[in-house]
Design a protein that fits this description.
The structure holds three protein chains of three kinds. Chain A is mostly helical. Chain A is 75% helix and 1% strand. Classes of the chains: A mainly alpha, B alpha/beta, C alpha/beta.
């Protein structure tokens, strides 16, 4: 190669010394390790502060106790009801989110005409940009009330409300990431199946979705992480009574989640008290649950992958043959159906349960006997219904916010400081603050995240190190936002001495969105065909040149999707900045990153919870926050669409 | 070749556009049943496009527009009432790049019958074996039916794709440069296979390789810039082409 | 064509990153790299508002408080308006936050060079921030805990306002008066239907504050004593959230601070030893309303400088007037 360069004119950017390549790969390794180190730090910090509780109160009474009354005398720190509540609400949210999301993802990638798709996809992503406080508020005012009236319950604050709300909040993540995964299934698979005379629906169900399963599972894990870690919204709608529902299928029972407990009690608790340590022990448990859920999910994923591609051993287990056999492949569906019947039964009594059972039975008899064309019609009908439901949800929430927020909007509102506790005046400093926080967090997380993903996909495919890193990333993803807030407060604000500052908030938010960026980038990189890399390497390009010029460009839309989701989340979160970055008011705009800032979600949070008589400005703030997110999205979406058109084969 | 074979697929005045670009210009061709028909021509001449008209795979291209008729057994397949799924079941296709699904060998072959409603395990077993035998893959694959199809070599994958196509019992098999990604040995196997197939099936093959066309086909069509320049019995097209353009292409003296 | 793609796409990625960078720069450095006040809206609003108020050309909706009066009344106290400079951070209880914010707004009108930053995370955060000295003043809706006093020996709590806790129900509820005993029965789970306390039959939905809240602690101490709260109580982490839960729900009962009462909920009179007491500021001042408590500023050691000025302003007559305007009860007012 050196001889060649002596003949040809000196290449402009062809320095390919092995040293540089090694240095680059080490940089990416460090990026990847960063995530793990962060998780380790957070975990250490939680365990350290939780330890006194285990010593004084004991592990078993803590885990298995059924009473949580930390300020009673004597205090009781039993978190079993909280664990049960968390699991129930999370499982419920997935029951809501997974079918809707996957149906919508299929619609976007397989069914929708291009012109519809470019409208629906951003609309769905908009759901990610609605701040969790707004969701909580919407849930409390609209959803809870609707449930109370519909089911004639004393109160709508319940597990069901939490599940529905968290399900909605997990939608954009699952939809976006699954859609990217389905999109990247090679066209040859679809053609191969259609050429055999399979219907579109058969092709989707039996070839496309199984081929995209890895990405879809990643999407569900990301969505579940969002559901488990959500704090501000869930504590507004679940009622927070620390009881185990009785019977367990009573979805109208109030429940209390682990995150809700943290969100409610963390701010008020006396530092250093046993109660304080109990909350850290509780956060540790939450992280452990997240770990178990993630490990479980990745094990299922591995199993599914092996089964789908036939890499598993030739003999089959009983379970597999049940799932494989066409006649019994509906077993999981039947299981869910029975569960639904049980839930309906517990809500409405035996008559409702009987009616539900009848409906299920009729469906079970009729569906398999449908002709192929009919079953495709039915499937597409359900898909349209799911998409319609998602859009309807978006429309309801947006209508609520816009109709109530529009009167507040004025030039003064956008350009002046708040007066009279935010009832008067505007929110200009909060807009500036939120822009700074979001930009800083993305600027912080994007290089780390993309770097880590590059390392995981391009340099190391699968070994113990990458598995550790991935587990770390998944854990980070499942870490509740409030824990990031606590960690940021203890580590950045106090230990590193940043003080309550913009920088501390940016880093805390950056850590929070890091896993989203890593996972989406990873998926995007994985979907770049191996032949492209080989083609480039075969031309004598170095590894980094190959990545930079051949791999990253086609992966860019996926990376931008991750960025969009991250922006939405960072802009709307309250919990991580609550203790690290924000003030409710300040006289001057921040002059450096070491100054605290105002932020829209925090402003909204305070208006909602502690300023009576601020209705109009509250909705105005929510509306501005959403418009801000939309504006940032718009840029990202335009960029992504340009990519899609230039990169389309 | 004494008797004139019946025509199974016919096009009349077929024009096709991808967006603003016209890819087929007034193509009329009658493909005889139970024979091997080869379509040859330089890259971009429209032969793959024509092939994809026969089972309406061009439906998948969003900005594709068609004029003229494509009839299968005398019925216009572009008619809106025509069941495209049924058409594709009868007119199978093997692609340029082997595209087995990421499933087991068994599931790949059983895929077609299953989507067409076959659930009986014993029947499926039988179909899988028969199809693999016809595709000359049985001996190599019979002990690893539960393995991933992606673990097969390129030639094996392509024969698997042929077996997959055979499993749905089509009339016609469309092959889009099926050997272009294969080595000579694998190519020879596929060519032998094609020879066997014409006993039961109509085969239409698009190929770059003129030797291959002359070896395997009974009829040959030469296409150039979207037009069907010449169509006739292979022997005639290769030995005594009527068109000067065809002769120049076949003799390799092409501008 | 294909050779152009990488350049185009990389350029676009670069554009995206630059755009984000630009946002960051615009947000952070664009507002002025130095500590001098910037000519953006934030200070402008405040500086323009102050003179008009002082000159009396604009009558504020909240009343007669104008600058000259203030100067006169506070002349004798330790607080001297206009002389304070610097920057302090006040953080903690979200219950106290609205008062502190209003005080800060007025304080900064009077002191052009002072910057008082208010934030809220909870009483615990307030005490810790004061203890760690990340904030000059902490706000707390409860007294200092032993654990906190042990950890930060220098902590001082200064009462700065009083708050009355009001029991509220849905406006449609027939009940108007409730006894402490009845409240106790409801919150311990003994009374589960409104007919048990003399209203129309309907299940009671019990709503209360979270277990870490100062309000809850106070309520428990005053009403429940040693009895445990019913496990089915719905817990809310703010006054606003309690009110939002009760205003649409006909069966609900809860408690919030005096400042939160409006016509979306119904405030109940308390029956104390047979006499009916309305939840009003006057009754809190008189000491006849039983559910009243103090709110605190917390400092680590004695407050100095701007922090001291701000506390003095809070305790000054004008400061206490603002406390009352926000629906709380002056700490200095006597019956």
């Amino acid at each position: 190669m050196n001889q060649a360069s002596s003949v040809t004119p000196p290449p402009t950017r062809m320095s390919s010394s092995p040293l540089k390549e090694t240095a680059i790969s080490i940089i990416w390794l460090l990026c990847a390790l960063f995530a793990v180190v962060t998780v380790f730090f957070i975990l250490l910090y939680l365990v350290w502060d939780g330890l006194p509780l285990f010593n004084e109160y004991g592990l078993w009474p803590f885990l298995a106790g059924v009473t949580w009354s930390p300020t009673f005398d004597p205090p009781a720190f039993g978190i079993l009801p909280l664990i049960v509540g968390t699991l129930l609400v999370t499982a419920g949210s997935m029951v809501v989110a997974v079918p809707l999301s996957i149906a919508t993802a299929i619609y976007l990638s397989e069914v929708a005409p291009y012109r519809v798709k470019v409208l629906v996809k951003p609309a769905v992503e908009l759901l990610a940009g609605i701040p969790s406080v707004v969701y909580g508020f919407f849930g409390l005012i609209v959803l809870v009330e609707w449930l109370r009236v519909t089911f004639d319950a004393p109160s709508g604050e319940s597990m069901l409300a939490g599940s529905i709300l968290l399900g909605i909040m997990a939608l954009p993540t699952i939809i976006s990431v699954s859609e990217d995964a389905i999109n990247s299934v090679p066209r040859e698979f679809r053609e191969g199946s259609l050429a055999l005379g399979a219907t579109r629906w058969q092709t989707i169900r039996q070839v496309v979705v199984p081929a995209a399963l890895s990405g879809i599972t990643a999407a569900i894990i990301l969505g579940m992480g969002r559901a488990i870690g959500e704090t501000m919204a869930v504590l507004m709608v679940t009622g927070n009574a620390a009881i185990i529902p009785s019977p367990i299928t009573n979805v109208l029972s109030p429940v209390r989640t682990l995150t809700g407990t943290l969100g409610i009690e963390m701010g008020e608790v006396a530092i250093g008290s046993l109660h304080y340590h109990a909350l850290f022990a509780l956060a540790t448990v939450l992280l452990v649950i997240t770990l178990i859920v993630n490990l479980g999910a990745s094990m299922i994923l591995k199993r599914l992958n092996a089964r789908a591609t036939g890499r598993a051993h030739a003999g089959r287990t009983v379970l597999e043959s049940i799932f494989r056999h066409p006649a019994t492949s509906a077993a999981p569906i039947a299981l869910v159906a029975l569960l639904v019947v049980a839930v309906i039964g517990s809500m409405g009594g035996p008559y409702y349960a009987g009616a539900a059972l009848l409906v299920v039975a009729v469906l079970a008899l009729v569906v398999p006997r449908l002709s192929r064309a009919r079953s495709q019609q039915l499937a597409f009908l359900l898909i349209y219904a799911a998409v319609g439901a998602v859009l309807l949800i978006l429309a309801i929430i947006l209508f609520d916010i816009i109709s109530k927020g529009l009167p507040a909007l004025s030039w003064e509102f956008l350009t002046s400081s708040p007066r009279d506790l935010g009832r008067e005046g505007g929110i200009f400093p909060a807009i500036v603050g939120t822009l700074c926080l979001v930009a800083g967090s993305i600027a912080f997380a994007l290089p780390f995240g993309v770097g880590a993903a590059i390392y995981l996909v391009e340099y190391q495919r699968d070994n113990r190190l990458t598995r550790t890193i991935r587990t770390g990333v998944d854990l980070l993803n499942g870490t509740p936002s409030i824990v990031f807030g606590l960690f940021g407060f203890a580590f950045l604000v106090l230990f590193l001495g940043f003080g309550v500052s913009m920088l501390a908030g940016q880093i805390t938010l950056g850590l929070m969105v890091l896993p989203t960026i890593i996972r989406t980038t990873e998926e995007a990189l994985k979907n770049v065909p191996q032949s492209l890399r080989e083609g480039s390497l075969a031309l004598g390009a170095t590894r980094w040149q190959t990545i930079g010029r051949v791999v990253l460009p086609p992966a860019a839309p996926g990376i931008i999707t991750g960025m969009i989701l991250s922006i939405g989340r960072a802009a709307g979160e309250t919990a991580p900045i609550l203790f690290t970055a924000v003030v409710f008011s300040q006289r001057y705009l921040p002059s450096s990153v070491f100054d605290p800032v105002m932020a829209l979600p925090y402003h909204l949070f305070i208006l909602t919870t502690n300023v009576p008589g601020s209705e109009t400005n509250k909705y105005g703030t929510a509306l501005v926050l959403i418009m801000l997110v939309v504006a940032i999205y718009a840029v990202a979406i335009v960029v992504r669409n340009r990519y899609h058109t230039t990169m389309r084969l | 070749m004494a008797t004139i074979p019946e025509q199974i697929i016919e096009t009349r005045g077929l024009n096709l556009w991808y967006g603003p670009c016209q890819a087929l210009i007034d193509v009329s061709i009658s493909v005889p049943a139970r024979r091997v028909t080869a379509l040859i021509g330089p890259s971009g001449c429209g032969k793959s496009t024509l092939l994809r008209c026969f089972n309406r795979m061009n439906d998948l291209v969003s900005d594709c527009r068609i004029e003229g008729t494509v009839s299968y057994h005398g019925t216009d397949v572009n008619d809106s009432a025509y069941d495209v799924v049924e058409l594709r079941k009868r007119v199978g296709m093997v692609f340029q790049k082997p595209n087995p699904f990421p499933k087991t060998i068994y599931d790949n072959v059983a895929y077609g019958p299953r989507v067409h409603g076959e659930k009986d395990r014993a029947k499926l077993d039988e179909i899988v074996e028969r199809s693999l035998r016809r595709a000359a893959l049985w001996d190599e694959a019979k002990d690893r039916l539960g393995d991933s199809a992606l673990g097969l070599s390129g030639g094996q994958q392509q024969r698997l794709c042929i077996a997959r196509t055979l499993a749905v019992e089509p009339d016609v098999i469309l092959m889009d440069e099926p050997c272009s990604a294969l080595d000579p040995i694998a190519t020879a196997k596929i060519e032998n296979l094609i020879d066997d197939l014409k006993e039961h099936y109509t085969v239409i093959i698009v190929t770059h390789n003129m030797q291959q066309a002359s070896r395997v086909s009974d009829y040959t069509g030469f296409m150039y810039l979207g037009e069907l320049v010449e169509f006739g019995e292979t022997l005639q097209v290769f030995e005594a082409p009527k068109e000067a353009l065809t002769e120049r292409y076949i003799t390799g003296r092409f501008g | 064509m294909s050779s152009n793609h990488p350049q185009i796409t990389i350029a676009m990625l670069a554009t995206a990153i630059v755009l984000i960078g630009a946002l960051l720069v615009a947000g952070c450095t664009g507002t002025g790299g130095t500590a001098t006040p910037t000519p953006t809206a934030a200070p402008t609003t405040l500086t323009t508002t102050a003179p008009t108020t002082a000159a009396g050309t604009q009558v504020t909706t909240t009343g007669t408080t104008v600058a000259p009066t203030v100067t006169a009344t506070t002349a004798g106290s330790t607080y001297i308006p206009g002389a304070s400079t610097g920057k302090i951070s006040v953080t903690g209880s979200t219950t106290v936050l609205p008062i502190a914010q209003k005080l800060a707004e007025r304080f900064m009108e009077l002191n052009k060079n002072a910057d008082v930053q208010i934030s809220g995370g909870g009483s615990g955060v307030g005490v810790q921030s004061a203890g760690e000295k990340t904030a000059e003043i902490g706000m707390s809706s409860r007294e200092l805990k032993d654990a906190e006093k042990t950890k930060y020996a220098g902590l001082k709590a200064v009462p700065m306002a009083r708050d009355g806790i009001v029991v509220i129900v849905h406006p449609s509820n027939a009940i108007t008066t409730i006894s402490l005993e009845q409240i106790k029965n409801i919150y311990t789970g003994k009374a589960v239907n409104w007919k048990d306390v003399g209203s129309k039959a309907q299940p009671i939905v019990v709503i209360g504050r979270d277990s870490a809240s100062g309000t809850r602690e106070f309520f428990t101490e005053k009403i429940l004593g040693k009895n445990a709260t019913t496990a089915s109580m719905l817990e809310k982490n703010s006054n606003g959230a309690v009110k939002s839960s009760i205003s649409p729900n006909p069966g609900a009962i809860g408690y919030v601070g005096l400042g939160y009462i409006d016509n979306s909920v119904k405030a109940l009179n308390l029956s104390v030893n047979g006499t009916e007491v309305q939840p009003t500021t006057e009754n809190v001042v008189k000491g006849t309303y039983p559910l009243a408590r103090n709110l605190y500023y917390v400092t680590n050691g004695d407050a100095t400088g701007l922090a001291k000025d701000f506390i003095d302003f809070t305790l000054s007559p004008e400061g206490q007037k603002i406390v009352e305007e926000e629906g709380f009860v002056s700490i200095t007012r006597t019956a």
